[in-house]
Write the structure tokens for this entry.
Amino acid sequence: KAGVTQTPRYLIKTRGQQVTLSCSPISGHRSVSWYQQTPGQGLQFLFEYFSETQRNKGNFPGRFSGRQFSNSRSEMNVSTLELGDSALYLCASSLAEGGANEKLFFGSGTQLSVL
Amino acid sequence: GESVGLHLPTLSVQEGDNSIINCAYSNSASDYFIWYKQESGKGPQFIIDIRSNMDKRQGQRVTVLLNKTVKHLSLQIAATQPGDSAVYFCAENIRGSQGNLIFGKGTKLSVKP
């Protein structure tokens, strides 16, 4: 079974631009979560989607948004990029059936550099 | 601030020795805990998990211990190998917050041959 796939692997953008990152979860997984990883702050939760609905949201500004499609694939968007948005953005999927907490399976991430 | 923290940011061990990585958590509502391993250039890889109704769980060469009284979690790696070199994260999930894992800062494990 294929793992979580994230594209692109690397991105370079300039301040003020916007960016869209893509994530394909493991087949059969309906929950997709997004995390931001930086050396200073570690892994921080952005949001989680289940069946096309945002179910949980972290403490990030409204410039960070996401969505999930009917095939469970997800995208996240960051508008008006700032230098501090430079980070590794990780996507994770899980079955998350029945509301029980389950382990997340992570992709390799998208490394975003904002110049 | 972080509700999950690590006692040691770096750990260096000799190949073949046992490794113990510690983690503290502060939220008594957390009912699920996971350890992840992250190698350079890769995403976190699941190692082992434990629910709050358990004190100990064993996997292949790894054991997780949970002490709810002092809100402490540890990962024990037996016969540490060079391939175990990585950053290890503990993470907690608060009851009802699906998909939202709260991660610690991580401990870098270096294995000396």
